[in-house]
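Subject: Interface between my chains keeps coming out wrong

I've been trying for a while to get a sensible model of this assembly. When I model each chain on its own everything looks fine, but I need the whole thing in one frame so I can look at the contacts. Pasting all components below, labels as-is. Any help appreciated, I'm running out of ideas.
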Amino acid sequence: MVDGPLIVQSDKTILLEVDHEQATEARHAIAAFAELERAPEHVHSYRLTPLGLWNARAAGLDAERVLDTLLKYSRFPVPHALLIDIEDTMSRYGRLRLEKDPQHGLVLRTTDYPVLEEVLHAKKIQPLLGPRIDGETVVVHSSQRGQLKQLLLKLGWPAEDFAGYVDGTPHPIALDEDGWTLRPYQQLAVENFWSGGSGVVVLPCGAGKTLVGAAAMATSQTTTLILVTNTVSARQWKDELLKRTSLTEEEIGEYSGAVKEVRPVTIATYQVLTTKRGGLYPHLELLDANDWGLIVYDEVHLLPAPIFKMTADLQARRRLGLTATLVREDGREGEVFSLIGPKRYDAPWKDIEAQGYIAPADCVEVRVDLPRDERVAYAMAEDGDKYRLCATSDTKSDVVEKLVASHRGEQLLVIGQYIDQLDDLAARLDAPVIKGETTVKERQRLFDAFRAGEIHVLVVSKVANFSIDLPEASVAVQVSGSFGSRQEEAQRLGRLLRPKADGRAARFYTVVARDTLDQDFAAKRQRFLAEQGYAYRILDAASIGETGPSD
Amino acid sequence: MSGVAGNLGVMSAIRALADQLARRSDDDLRRLLSVRPDLILPAVPDFSALAARASTRVSLQRALDNATRPHLQVLEAVAILTDDDGLPVSRPRLLAALGATVAADADRIVEDLVGKALVVESEDGILPVGALTDALGPYPAGLGRSFRTLARSIPRYGPALITAVPLVAPAARTEALTSAAAAGLVDAVAADADAWDRVLAEAPDGVQGLLDRLRETPVGTTATGSDGGASPAVRWLLDRGLLAPLDALHVELPRGVGMALRGHAVFPTLALEPPVVVERTTRAALRDNAAFGAIAETLRLMTTLLGIVAAVPVATLRSGGVGVREVRRVREALQSSDAEAVWLLELAASVGLLALDPDDSRWKAARLQVWESLDRDAQWLLLVEGWLALDRAPALIGSRLPDGSAVNALAAEASRPDAPTVRRRLLQAAVHLTGPDAAPEALPVLADRSVVDLASWYQPRLQRRFARLLPGMLLEAAALGLTGGGSLTDAGRLVAGDQLEDAARHVREALPDPVAHVVLQADLTAVAPGYLQPEVARGLLRMSTPEGQGPATTYRFSADSVRSALDAGEDAASILAFLSTHSATEVPQALTYLVEDTASRYGRLRVGRAGSYVRTDDDAVTAAVLADPRASVLGVVQVAPTVLVSPASPQELTALLRDLGFTPAPDTPAGEGARTMSVRETGDAGTAARLPPDQLRSQPTTWAVAEEEITAQLAVLRSARTGPSDRQIGSDGPLLGLETLRAAIRSHSSIRLGTADSEGNHVRQILVPLSVSGGRLRVFDPDKQVERVVSVHRVMDVEILEGSPADG
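Reply #2:
Try treating it as a single job with all components included. I did that and got this:
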C-alpha cells in the first residue's frame, strides 16, 4: 500500500493530510473533481458530488483519470463501491448533447439511444421538444434551451451544450495594464472560461474577481451586462472598470433603483431586475435591450431564484459567474451548474494566500462574562429578545475600548448589527459611524478618508458587508452579527483579506457574551472559520488588559 | 424376517455389494470411506451392515449430491436402463444410451461409481445400488416414464396407445392388442431412427417446437387452442400416443419420445468438461484495493455494530427474529444499507459476538472487549470462520415467504443447513474459474451466472440451491475480502484451500498498522488517519462524537461531549493529558480552552439519586436527625442547609422521624425527578472479557472422518469377515425386506406379507405391492379388490410368490 496523503472515505469525502510531502500534488489533482469542504490546519476534507464529477467531465477529465488519481494518492484502499459510483456518474455526462443542426436548428443528440428514450418519456421534458428527426436526434425549441438543461440535470443526464453563442454587438474593450498586470491565476481563469464557453470562476474573497470579469470582457470585445448584488457594489465595479480598462464614463451605464442607463457596458443590480410590479418584472426588457455578447454574474452564490428563471432564457449568450464559494445556503448548486455553466476555474485559497495575494488572518474570540443583573434579565427574557440582550451588553463596549486602545494607529473597523449599540460605541470611541441611513456620498467620503489614513477607526453596520473596498483595514472587531450566517462571516473576513502593504496578518476579533445564544452562534462561527483554515483562538475578556492582545 | 433373501430370484443387490466390498483392497475401501464418510458414522459391525448403509436412501442422496454432472448422467442412464425389468444393464447397452460418449470415458466413470458403491457390477452387467433409483427422483435424466409404465398408471392412456398403433406403425398387426403390447410397439418405433423420422415427417407445424420444449423437462401444460381444446400440435401427438395426458391441462412426454429427441439416447453426450466461462477481467491492483477496502470496512462496521448493540440490545419479535424496525435502527446508526446491517448482525451472531439473552429475548453484545482485544487479522479470521460455518443464508432475509410475510433477520426462516456446503462449493468454483495462473492484468471476474453453472457441474443436484444462494454468498465473500472487484483474492484462494492461518497472515501483511495518534485541529476535531488503536478510540469516544464513514474517523469535540467525559469521572487535566499524549500535533488553543472552560463550570448543578428526603427550615431539626445513630443506618446525609436525603424509602425515614418525636408531613411535589434520573448500567462486559478468544471460534461441521477412524473401522470390518455368507442379519434386515418389496413392485409379483396387527398378532396375507415410500407401503388386496396402505414398521416378513406376475 502506498503511503499517500489522501484517505478516501466511503461517505464520499476525501481527507487530505496537508503536511504530507505529496499534499500539494494531490490537492491539485483532486481539486478538478472534488469540492473543498473544510480546510482546517492539518487535514482538509473534500467532497465528491455528481456536480463536481460533471464539472470534471466538462473540463475534459475522464473517469479513468479520476480513479487513477484516487488510487495513486490514497493511503488506504478506496471503497470499491465509490469507484463504481464515480465511473457510473461520470459516464452520464455528455451522453446527451445540445447541438446546432444546419437544417433543424437546435437539436438534442445522443450517442446512447435508450437514454434519449428515457428522457423523451419524462413528462416535464416532452413539451420542450419538437419533432424527432431520427433515433438519436430530436429538435429542441430554442427558447427552452435553459429549462431543458435544468430538467435534464435533475433527471441525472446533464447535457453538454455545444450549441454555441450569439456573437453580440462588438465593442472594443482593452485592459489598461498600467502599473499592474493580471496575476497568473486570473489569466488562467479567463482562459479556462473562454475555452469552456460559459461557466463559473471560483476565487476567494480579495483575490481580484472583478479583474477576471474585466479580462473576460476584454477577450470578448462585445457589449456586456454585469449583474451585481447592490448599488455600492455596482459603483465599485464601475470605478474598477474605469481604472483598469479602456472604458470611459460614457460607455458604462448603471441600472439600479436610482439610475436607469443602458450603455454598451451596463451594470445592473439583482434587486432591480427582480422587482415585481403587478405580477410582472418591469425591468426584464433590459436583458433584451442590447445584443449582449457577455453576461457577468457577480457573487453567483447569492443569485436570487428569479434570476435563474431569467437566465434560462439567456442560454445563447456567454455567461460568466464569479464567486468565492459554490456552496449555496439554499442548495441550488445544480441550477448554477446547468444554467450558468460548470466550474471553469477554482483556486485553492491556501495557494493564493501562499502566493501573497491575500492576507493571512488571525481570528480571536473574546468572551465576556455578563454581570449578574444582565444574566438574570437574559434568563427571563422572551426568546425573541434574547440575542439582542446578550449581543448588546455594556460589558462588550468596555472590551471593545480596550481592544481599540491596544491597536492604536492601525486601521480598525468595528462591525455590529444593532444601531443603538453602534452609536454608543461610536460615541465612546469618538469615531464616525456608517449605517443604513448614511448617504452614499457621505459613505464614500468616510471610506476615502479611512483609506487615506485620516480616520483610523470606523464603526459600520451590516451595510458594509457587501463589496466595499477597504484596503488598509487590518483589524476588525465584531460585536454583534445576524445569527452567525456563514455568508456574513465570509464577507466580513473578506474585508480584511485584501493584501496589506506590509504583509501583516489581519486580526479579526469577535466579542461574545459567555453562556448565551451569542456563544452558541460563536461556536458555529468558530467551526466555519477554523474549517476555512483560519487560525482561531479564544480569550477571556479579563486577560485582554494583562497580556496584551497582539501576541 | 429370515428367509427373505432366499426367496429372491437374483441375489440381493445389497448382499452382492457386501460381497464386493469385502473383496476390495484396503486402499479401495479407504477411498470409498473418505468420499462417503457417513457410511461409518457411526461405526458398522460388518460388511453387510456397511453395504446396507450404503444402500439407504439418505446415504445415497448424500452421495448423489456430491456427484458431478457426468457421474450423475451415467447413474441416471443406469437407473433408466434398469428401471423396467430390474435386470442389470451391460456396458455396451449403457454406452449406446450415452450418445456420442467415448467408451473410455464412460468406463472410467462406471469404475468410479462402482468404487463409490453407487452401482454394483457383476458378470450380468450393472445394477444401481439399493434405493438409488428412488433417490434420483421421479424423472431421472429429465425423461418421462416409459410407455409401459404410463399405460399402466394412466387409465386413458392404455386404450389410447392401442388406437395409436395404426397411426405410428401401420405395418404392425393390431388384432387383440393389449395396452402393454401397444406400448412395446410404439416404443419400438420411437427407438428406431428411421421409423421415428417417418412419423415426424407427417407432423404438422408446431410439433417440433412443442417437443423441443419438453426435451429437458418431460411434464408440460398444454397450450389450449382458440376453441378451448388442445392445439393441433398437441392433438396430433396425443392421437399418436406420443404424449400422455396426465389431466386436463398437463401432459407427460414418454421416455421413448424423449430419448428419440436426444438422438435415441438418454444423453446425446456426457458433459465431461466443467463449464468455465469468463466474461470480464479486472486488474490485480483494483482487486486488492477493493478487497482490503472491504475487509477494513467490514471490521470497522462490526466494531461499530457491537458498540451499538452494547449500548442498546437488539429486541426480537415474538414470532422470532429481529424486526424491520430494529434493523432500521441498527442501519441508521451504522449508516449502511439494510442488507449490510442484516448481514453483520447474522455474522456477529454466528461467531458468538452477539448472544440472545434468554431472559429478555434480546440480542446483546456479549464479547465486545474480546473482539476489541483481537488484532485485525484475528478479527478477520474469526469472521471468515464464522462465515464458513454459518448455516444460514443472510441474503434471503427480506425475501417474501409464501404467506406474504418477509423473512426476518436472525429468524429461523433464513436457516439453511446446507449453506456451509454451498459456500465451500462457491470457493472451489471460484478457484477453478480463476485458474492457477491468471495474469495480474486480466484476472477473471466471477459472474453470478458462471459460478452457479460451474458449481452446478460439480453438484448438479444442488443447482436450484446454488442459483438461489450463490449470488448472495458472492456478496458476502466480497465483504470479507475473499473476492475483490469480483475476482478471487489471494486470501480467498488460501481460504478455499483451508489454509486459514496463511490467509490471516496475508491479510495482516496487507492491512496497515493501527495508528496511535490523532490529528487535533482548531475546528475542534480530532482526525484519526487510519485504523485507531482500540484503547485510544475508546478514550476518544468518551470525550467526543465520531463522524464519517471510512478508514479514517473524525471525532468532534463539543461542550456536551466534554461534559460526558467529565460525567465519566475525567477532569480537565486528564482529558488534556490524554489528548496531548495521543496527538501528533500540538493541542489547539481553542480545544484547550473548550476543555478547561467546560470543566471549570462543570458541576454547578448536581443530580443524584435518593430514596427520600427531608425539607425543613429548622436547623435544630436537621441537627437532631443527623445526631441520631439510627440516621446513619439509613444513610441520611445533608446535601444543603435545609435538605437531608437518604437512600431509604420515605416510609422508613418517616418512621425514624416519628421515633425521634417529630411529626413529619409527606411532601408530594418534585419527588419524581430523582427516580427518573437513573444512570444507565454499563452491562457485564467484565465477565465477557475473561473469556479467551478461542471460545469465539466456530468450526464448520463437515462430514469428514479422520484417517485413524477409517483404519479402526477397517480393522473391525476385516475381523468380522465371515459376514456376508453368514445368515446372520443384523440391523440391515429391514433393508433387505424393503429391497424385496421393491423387487416385487418392479416385477409386479404377489407377495406374502406378514404384519403385526393392532393387537400385536402376526397376520399373513397375499397382496400385490404397488409402491413404497415415506414409511408407507401401498398394496392391492386381490381378494377384496381394494387398495390399502400398510405402515412399513408393522411389516414383519416379506416373501415373493414365484411365478405370479400380476400385470394389469
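Reply #3:
Confirming on my end. Residues 1-11, 670-695, 723-731 of chain B have pLDDT under 50 and may be disordered.
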